[in-house]
Design goal:
The chain is an alpha+beta fold and 232 residues long. Helix content is 15%, strand content 27%. The strands form 2 sheets. Strands 2-1-7-8-9-6-10 form a 7-stranded mixed sheet. It comes from Aegilops tauschii.
Length: 232
């Protein structure tokens, strides 16, 4: 989806060069590596996978809004509907109440307020359920450059998927998805103090073993000044 779809001028977004049309997938069980290509015809312009600076994108979207439109650190507490006498027969107005006492009336509400969404509950949607997987992602920053090839790498194993891709000469985006429920229950046993929600206990050891697998061209950070890791 292009930035123009959101009415954002391209000059506001710092986009990197398009990604290569192929990527590597390594099986951690046997070490086998395969090369795949993204769908689409390369010479037709259909392949347009590319990273975008999230901060720059959000700032560009914010610039298009009237001053004072955005409210930060404002938690939505409840939603109600009302129809005034003058508006009888017209669509209901949504009344949003925030935790600081602010009341906002709106004709359109878009719910993107997280896994425990107040909007979803108001719409009568089911509560979220545990999927049995945990994920962690981050942006590794190397001020002096990482020296990594400009290609996407993915690593697969039983119940595990990890990937890394350089988005600039100094930044590498990475993520790891891991099946955690079974392992957590096995370790916890009858001890209620050990919770499956402590996913870091299972993810981070695998992260260390996986993301440095066969990555000799990626220079690990030598100190906090040389490189740093940002988790989201």
């Amino acid at each position: 989806m292009s930035n123009e779809t959101f009415g954002v001028r391209p000059k506001h977004i710092i986009e990197q060069r398009p990604r290569d049309s192929q990527f590597q997938v390594t099986n951690l069980e046997n070490g086998a590596t395969q090369v795949f290509r993204f769908a689409g015809r390369e010479n037709s312009g259909e392949i347009k996978a590319r990273p975008a600076d999230r901060k720059a994108l959000l700032e560009a979207l914010a610039e298009e809004l009237p001053p004072g439109t955005i409210r930060f650190s404002s938690k939505l507490v409840s939603i109600d509907s009302e129809t005034t006498a003058e508006e009888e027969g017209s669509p209901e107005t949504s009344v949003l109440r925030l935790d600081d006492g602010t009341v906002i009336r709106a004709k359109v509400v878009i719910g993107c307020d997280g896994v425990h969404s107040v909007v979803a509950r108001w719409l009568g949607l089911s509560e979220p359920v545990t999927c049995g997987r945990s994920a962690v992602r981050g942006l590794a920053v190397y001020p002096d450059g990482h020296g990594m090839k400009r290609e996407l790498r993915q690593f697969l194993s039983a119940g595990l998927r990890a990937s890394m891709v350089p988005i600039s000469e100094t930044e590498v985006y990475w993520f790891l998805v891991n099946n955690t429920v079974a392992a957590a229950e096995e370790e916890a046993g009858a001890d209620p103090a050990k919770s499956p929600r402590s996913c870091g206990r299972f993810i981070f050891p695998k992260l260390a073993d996986t993301l440095w697998y066969d990555c000799g061209d990626l220079v690990p950070p030598q100190s906090k000044e040389k490189g740093k890791n940002h988790l989201e």
